[in-house]
């Protein structure tokens, strides 16, 4: 009888790769975004900031998009953008959450997270994996 251990290792490795390769939303590059917004005085409010991140334009909006924020302490905001008007039939809603600090006329973003609610899911929880 031949030694089958290399085949078992290969089978286990391939199984791990295929089961762990589900699409997950990448964490946005906060440093790159901070470089992009540095010196941009047109971003006046928390709403402007998250719209600039999501749309590329702080003044743009569309039906089904809402923004709200909570001021944690002086100048520090937790900001949420919800998009309920998506063309992807698998995704019921998309959320961007952002933690940012306004200092005079500029912003520093500390954290950006993206998540979705799936149309075909029994759960109503936000998730970072793509809907299937």
Structure description:
The protein is α+β, with helices and mostly antiparallel strands and 132 residues long. It has one domain (24-118): Nuclear Transport Factor 2, Chain: A, CATH 3.10.450. It is built from three helices and four strands. It has a four-stranded antiparallel beta sheet, with helices on one face. β3 (91-103) and β4 (106-118) form a beta hairpin.
What's the layout of helices and strands?
Blueprint: H1 5-19, H2 30-37, H3 46-55, E1 65-73, E2 76-83, E3 91-103, E4 106-118
Antiparallel strand pairs: 1-2, 2-3, 3-4
Q: Judging from the principal axes of the Cα atoms, what is the shape?
A: elongated
CATH structural class? Alpha Beta
Distance between the termini: 43 Å
Helix content: 25-40%
Shape-level CATH architecture: Roll
**Class per helix and strand makeup:** alpha+beta
Strand content: 25-35%
Number of domains: 1
Please describe the structure with a list of short key phrases separated by commas or semicolons.
single chain; 132 residues; alpha+beta; Nuclear Transport Factor 2, Chain: A; four-stranded antiparallel beta sheet; 3 helices; 4 strands; 33% strand; elongated
Summed up, what is this model?
The chain has 132 residues and is of the alpha+beta class.
């Amino acid at each position: 009888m031949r030694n089958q251990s290399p085949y078992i290792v290969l089978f286990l490795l391939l199984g791990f790769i295929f089961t762990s390769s589900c699409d997950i939303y990448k964490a946005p590059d906060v440093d790159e975004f901070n470089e992009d917004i540095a010196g941009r005085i047109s971003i006046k409010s928390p709403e402007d900031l998250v719209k600039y991140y999501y749309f590329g334009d702080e003044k743009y909006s569309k039906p089904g998009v809402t923004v709200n924020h909570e001021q944690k302490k002086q100048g520090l905001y937790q900001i949420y953008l919800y998009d309920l008007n998506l063309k992807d039939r698998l995704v019921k809603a998309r959320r961007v959450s952002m933690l940012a600090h306004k200092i005079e006329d500029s912003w520093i973003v500390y954290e950006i997270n993206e998540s979705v609610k799936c149309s075909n899911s029994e759960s109503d929880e936000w998730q970072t994996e793509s809907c299937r």
